[in-house]
Amino acid sequence: xxxxxxxxxxxxxxxxxxxxxxQNESRDDASExxxxxxxxxxxxxxxAPLLSLPYIAVFDEASEKLGAEKNPDFDASLLTIEALTQxxxxxxxxxxxxxNNVSNDTLYLQVADAQYLTQQMGSSGAQMYLLEATxxxxxxxxxxxxxxxxxxxxxxxPGTYTRTYFEQLHxxxx
Length: 174
Hints:
Blueprint: H1 3-20, H2 29-44, E1 55-60, E2 65-70, H3 81-91, E3 97-103, E4 106-111, H4 115-120, H5 122-137, E5 145-149, E6 159-161, H6 163-172
Parallel strand pairs: 4-5
Antiparallel strand pairs: 1-2, 3-4, 5-6
Helix pairs in contact: 1-5
């Protein structure tokens, strides 16, 4: 695994989140400091790279579409619910996610405090998170859908997401 590639990947995703998130004038300084501190720690601590996800959300500025790109740095031996959950938490420390159970082909997840996801990431940031989480968990054998349970907000809705949902979303915007 190449650490510089992971750092570049993280900085690219982080930059997209910053660019596409909506402006919220009532933001408190504590949340800004948290993101800044996390970014600084990651930049300074190359010995502990971020856990990678199997897919990366990419935004094509020309077509203004969000898509998924296979992550060449992903270690397929880490393909477990626990490892993917930890990778999501590591890559998105503001969003605490818990895997509850699997029923049929659906994994049920709980986001205890979805304020950051639904109110602070903007619509594009929230869609990127849901896409990366959905693609990550549906990489697991026998998981075809991911049900997110959280309080609905301005930028994200709870519900069941599949890869097909995101593929159809792109088709609708053409």
